[in-house]
């Protein structure tokens, strides 16, 4: 029983879990930043998706011309979607990895590289930096997630 | 050891966690509702994205005209994507917040306001209500998530 | 106190949780596969979304013609978005369901059917198979998630 308790303690009440909590919160906040950035470009470029959003810009036909796509708005939206596609796997696989009881230093390395790669990816997408900046920063985050998934499957595999 | 156990008990086996479970399930079910609503508009507006989906509506050229976008379908899809963009951060940050051991009443306030705001957001998007209904309901859910993220970082910060 | 501990043990240190970990990791890896598949079609079809991605294909106007949408690329992207829309609810509701202490055999049935349905859905979308293959595989995964949500709400309901 005390063995099981030690196991539980190891699983949750440990530094790896709180490291996961810190980096996951940071990377989710970064993803959330894409929403106000989209709004900023929609307003400055006057490019909206919904008729009700253009009501304050004029009536009837004069407002209709603001229902359009804009390259800058679409760029932020692609960055946001890419965040969702990559941060959702990190959220799930990272939690399971943290509960597998990895070494703190190894776990921190994974979380820090992933977070850094996703921040770089956003700069590479929005500035934009020439390729392969965006491709590489995407690939680094992807590889970190695969590495954590491998650890989880090695420990948890239960088919 | 009994101190650690109390800590574990505080972390998981408590009402805040089950409050999180309840509201997260509700808000995820709400998000899932967007799929049948999209299907409903695709079928009634006869606006499909895939050739194989129009096979029952006719052959060759006569089916091709149903491969088109429709404003009502696109509206539901934008609402669905906005749900993903906002409910994914709530899912992750909310879980970490619940494990930080907040006061039950404070936690319930966060979860209830977020869930209410996202339900209002869906009505504001689909009816649609005049702005700033949709903008405000989005902002309220966003602010609740930021507030929980602040609590998590204050407690967990481990860089 | 030992009752609480047994409860905690039941909650986390059990086979259901590791079954969840295994299938969630598999289904998230499957979703991640959509990114390289998108890249493969973008490169072979020469259809890109960002000007900086076409720089290696030529200069000025000759590169601009590769900034276009392609039906095969859009098909993979729709499959990827459908994964996000369905795997995010599974991630959240599945975790809460696993912590509700269901029977191992019942839980495995849920996780296996969901994972199988999402793999079938990807094949049905990408080959593509005639309908209702894709519709049915979507519906099976959806129903499994609803069934788990019902179990969570029955056990956790805390409004």
UniProtKB/TrEMBL annotation, chains A, B, C:
> Chief location of this protein?
endoplasmic reticulum
For the protein in the UniProt heading, the enzyme class is transferase
Highest taxon, organism lineage: Eukaryota
Q: Where in the cell is it found?
A: Endoplasmic reticulum membrane; Mitochondrion outer membrane
One annotated Gene Ontology cellular component of this protein: mitochondrial outer membrane
Its Enzyme Commission number(s) read 2.5.1.18
The record's section on Pfam families has: MAPEG
Q: Which InterPro entries match?
A: MAPEG-like_dom_sf, Membr-assoc_MAPEG, MGST1-like
Segments crossing the lipid bilayer = 20-41, 87-115, 135-153
Catalytic activity annotation: RX + glutathione = an S-substituted glutathione + a halide anion + H(+)
Q: What does this protein do?
A: Conjugation of reduced glutathione to a wide number of exogenous and endogenous hydrophobic electrophiles.
Recorded hits in PANTHER family, A to Z, give:
MICROSOMAL GLUTATHIONE S-TRANSFERASE 1 (PTHR10689:SF6)
Fill in the subunit field for this protein: Homotrimer; The trimer binds only one molecule of glutathione.
Q: Which family does it belong to?
A: Belongs to the MAPEG family.
Identification of the protein by name: Microsomal glutathione S-transferase 1
Give the source species.
Answer: Columbina picui
């Amino acid at each position: 029983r005390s063995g099981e308790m030690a196991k539980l303690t190891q699983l949750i009440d440990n530094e790896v879990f709180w490291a996961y909590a810190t980096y996951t919160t940071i990377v989710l906040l970064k993803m959330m930043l894409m929403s106000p950035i989209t709004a900023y470009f929609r307003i400055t470029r006057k490019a909206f998706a919904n008729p009700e959003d253009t009501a304050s810009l004029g009536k009837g036909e004069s407002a209709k011309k603001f229902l359009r796509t804009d390259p800058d708005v679409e760029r932020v939206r692609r960055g946001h979607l890419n965040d969702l596609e990559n941060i959702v796997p990190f959220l799930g696989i990272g939690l399971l990895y943290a509960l597998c009881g990895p070494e703190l230093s190894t776990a921190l390395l994974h979380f820090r590289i992933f977070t850094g790669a996703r921040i770089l990816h956003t700069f590479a997408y929005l500035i934009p930096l020439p390729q392969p900046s965006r491709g590489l920063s995407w690939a680094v985050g992807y590889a970190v997630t695969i590495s954590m998934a491998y650890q989880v499957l090695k420990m948890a595999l239960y088919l």
